[in-house]
Amino acid sequence: MFIDRVRVHLRAGDGGAGVAAFARMRGKPKGRPNGGNGGHGGSVILRADPSVATLLRYQRATHHTASPGTHGEGDLRNGRAGEDMVLPVPLGTMVFDDTGLLLADLVDPGQEVTVLKGGRGGLGNAAFVTPANRAPGIAEQGEYGASAWFTLELKLLADAALVGFPNAGKSSLIARVSAARPKIADYPFTTLEPNLGVVSLAGRELVLADIPGLIEGAAEGRGLGLEFLRHTERARVLVMVLDPTQTPPPAEQLRILEDEIGRYSAELAARPRVVLVNKSDLVDDPPDIPGALLVSALTGDGLDAAIHAIADLVEETIRSAPDRKGYVLHRPLGPRFTVKREGEAWRVEGRLAERAVRFADLTIPEAADMAARRLARLGVDEDLAAAGAAPGDEVRIGELSFEYTVNEEE
Asked: Which range marks the domain in which residue 394 is found?
């Protein structure tokens, strides 16, 4: 089954927790702090893989989660980092976030995008040792891995796309000149999914895409055309396949096809093209269409010349228009945190603010004091005051709630 659009839920791995531990030393209730850090969680990476043909696996399995980091231990043993989850996708896969923003267009083998970074591992108490505090008893929790929905959309990578009315013989053509074996039958809409075929002739090689048949109104969603027109967008050359045995006649078929493509995309309408009149073995009086090549998928007549003409145009197009490069969006860092009203309380959101309070036990005064200092350094106190927070107001950060206080030191 050819699947070219899926929605997936991805989650990065959680970071492991740091640990508060001490080396046991004779005569000392607490020896040297030796708690290790937690390992970072694995990230989620999408990578273009030429061995993957469709997005079917992601329709069958919608949820994917990277490995978590392990917790730190005593004796300065840090936790292991979680393994990154690398998800293979077909060449030509576009990655959108849940707002519809295009994050990446993966067209080259091995091209990848990290869509979610793993959670940071928590620090153990050995990391908090200072000259003024030689025996800290605090450790951080690991950071939760981020999660989100993404849409993956595949646009086939082909040198040329066969475009025509249903039952024009596109599948027969691609089956005749390549090893592709699409479904072929004598009724409309036999092709319900795009097919790719590699054509080799006299040392020349090109990739053909067989696009399901278009009908008038395809650009508005009639028939199956709109669902697959996007697969023509990456083709360097369009091959218009006309059928002289159908109604309307070939010249009118060509007009309708060009009109539908133009209504779908002006850029696509300007793409170089070759016009083929198929089923030439079934008509005595071939249509007079300037520049059209007569071929027969059944007998093979005219196909060698047609393939050379398509290959010539593909090569000319490559020389005049370099390959479209892949695209990965490098998103600028957003605000470190935001403050907003949430009912009768205040909500502080942002990874840095949540990281500032992720201690194993905030009932320990040392941990509470350090969390307060971190928030103050970030500017959370100032922003709460500017937003109108009053002493005694509830402030929510992640799953924790605090009471807002004002430092009245002179």
From this structure: 338-403
